[in-house]
Design a protein that fits this description.
The protein has ten helices and 26 strands. By secondary structure, it is of the alpha+beta class. The chain has three domains: about 180 residues, endopeptidase fold (from Nostoc punctiforme), CATH 3.90.1720; about 130 residues, SH3 Domains (SH3 type barrels); about 80 residues, Roll (SH3 type barrels). It has a six-stranded antiparallel beta sheet with strand order 19-26-20-21-22-25. Strands 9-8-7-4-10 form a five-stranded antiparallel beta sheet. A three-stranded antiparallel beta sheet has the order 14-11-17, with no helix packed on it. The longest helix has 16 residues. It is globular and about 65 Å long.
């Protein structure tokens, strides 16, 4: 591997730190100091399940697809998606080029990136029992960073993730919360990585149980037991050639196998592409099971010595998958989004689910489209067709933008993203993964709803505060379309 001079490396990796500092924007809910006049309650269609304008029929993809004039028209073909992804990797500073990392990393850069995310908050934190996290606990967590053990230069290691793994701000499984009784938003939870994700290992914790890793879209701490260390050739060669299966379900699971527990009941997320062992003999069992009712796939595993290995696994045909990424069409965007409907909201991909930015990322990943991890980066990505807004923009401009939304457009307010579905009952509708929501009822009182999951809601009535609507607080609209179109 070519060694990159430290100064050049710093320029390449500094955006990673900036992205990590912004990593708190994971859809806890909007917070934005904008005050406008409260909306006047309007006569609305009868509410279903308390949501203004909602009908039960709208909780399925078919009505939304049926109203589209050309639902199956390609938005981007495979070549255009490849070009879009290349543009994303070139222009968006939140995307990390693992192959560009040098063979050795200088101490200053490793420390900089850890410091960028592993900064203990000064506000009080509480554990799952509601007890305040003490100074001794926080000190032990900080000591486990082992910053004093970072060498002057460290050889880089590569690996593949072998099991869905949490990415944490600190090398600890301790869940911490801002208030007693609220145990949904773990302030140390950042994101998650999935089987087959490539990472670069930058550092190890004092207890030897955690590693600080950089993946293409994020860098944080993960448990060491969920990674197999291999050569660059092994890591970047995994899945480089087909045939493949692409997971098109919200989540899928490999077949149970007591013979090979490392690939038994393994959760695979929407958009994961795994290689198929097409030459597997028809009558040879896969981990004790004949393969005709499944696809024989190859998955990375961690050997006893921590090294990377590979093992065959069965992906049952009952688990939705495709032989390639799905065609990027409006119909498929809607269909894929509804596969998450009702799933519990998971801050930073907690609960083996996902948050708002993960929700839209994984929808688009089923088409092979790369998006940044967090709303903060997605919303301003220069690689997409961005329509920005400021607090000086008029209601008319915002209303015109809402009227011009297309299926699949991503609408951002501070800390949150929604995907446009279509129009119904005189309203514009979105599907989004949200921890809450509010609107004014017919009686003029503000309704607070614990949506706490993937939900279908109208956009116009949604309120971010007593006086500001979601539309008032839109910061950006992003569109995945050919670059010469709007």
């Amino acid at each position: 591997m070519t060694t990159i001079p430290a100064q050049l490396l710093h320029r390449r990796l500094a955006p990673l730190t900036r992205a990590l500092i912004l990593a708190t924007a994971l859809c806890a809910g909007p917070a934005f100091a904008l005050t406008l006049s409260p909306p006047k309650p309007a006569a609305q269609a009868p509410a279903y399940a308390g949501i203004i304008g909602l009908e039960e029929r709208l909780l399925a993809p078919q009505p939304w697809i049926a109203q589209l004039p050309d639902a199956d028209k390609l938005i981007l073909d495979r070549a255009a998606i490849a070009a879009q992804n290349a543009r994303m990797r070139q222009l968006d500073t939140s995307i990390i080029d693992l192959r560009a990392l040098p063979a050795t990393l200088p101490e200053v850069l490793v420390r900089e990136h850890i410091d960028g995310i592993s900064r203990l908050p000064t506000r009080p934190l509480y554990d799952v029992q509601g007890k305040r996290v003490g100074a001794d606990q926080l000190r032990a967590i900080s000591d486990n960073l082992a910053l004093e053990r970072i060498p002057a230069s460290r050889p880089i290691q590569y690996g593949l993730v072998v099991h869905r793994a949490a990415l944490r701000a600190f090398p600890t499984a301790l869940r911490v919360f801002s208030s007693q009784g609220d145990t949904d938003i773990d302030r140390f939870q950042e994101s998650a990585l999935f089987p087959g994700d490539a990472v670069a290992v930058l550092h190890e914790s004092a207890d030897g149980q955690w590693v600080f890793v950089a993946s293409e879209r994020y860098a944080a701490w993960m448990e060491k037991r969920f990674i197999g260390i291999g050569s660059a050739g092994q890591v970047f060669g995994y899945g480089a050639q087909g045939p493949y299966r692409v997971i098109t379900a919200g989540k899928a699971f490999t077949a149970h196998t007591p013979e090979e527990p490392r690939v038994s009941n393994l959760q695979l997320e929407m958009g994961l592409r795994v290689p198929v062992l097409a030459d597997w003999p028809a009558m040879e069992p896969v981990n004790g099971q004949q393969a005709h009712a499944g696809h024989v796939i190859q998955l990375p595993v961690r050997n006893d010595d921590g090294s990377l290995g590979f093992a065959p696994a069965l992906l049952p045909r009952s688990q939705e998958s495709s032989d390639d990424y799905l065609p990027l069409t409006q119909a498929n965007l809607i269909t894929q989004a509804f596969k998450f409907l009702g799933e519990r909201y998971g801050w930073g991909h907690s609960y083996d689910t996902r948050d708002c930015s993960g929700f839209v990322s994984e929808i688009y990943r089923s088409f092979g489209v790369l998006l940044p991890r967090n709303t903060s980066a997605q919303a301003i990505s220069p690689a997409l067709n961005r329509v920005p807004f400021t607090d000086k923009d008029s209601k008319a401009k915002r209303s015109d933008a809402i009227a011009g939304l297309q299926v699949g457009d991503l609408v951002y307010i501070p800390g949150h993203v929604m995907m446009m579905l279509g129009d119904a009952n005189g309203l514009t509708w979105v599907i989004h993964d949200t921890s809450g929501g509010s609107w004014y009822g017919a009686d003029g009182k503000r309704v607070h709803a614990s949506l706490n999951g993937v939900s279908v809601t109208p956009l116009q009535p949604m309120m971010a505060s007593d006086t500001a609507s979601y539309i008032d607080r839109i910061t950006n609209i992003q569109r995945i379309r050919p670059q010469d179109t709007k």
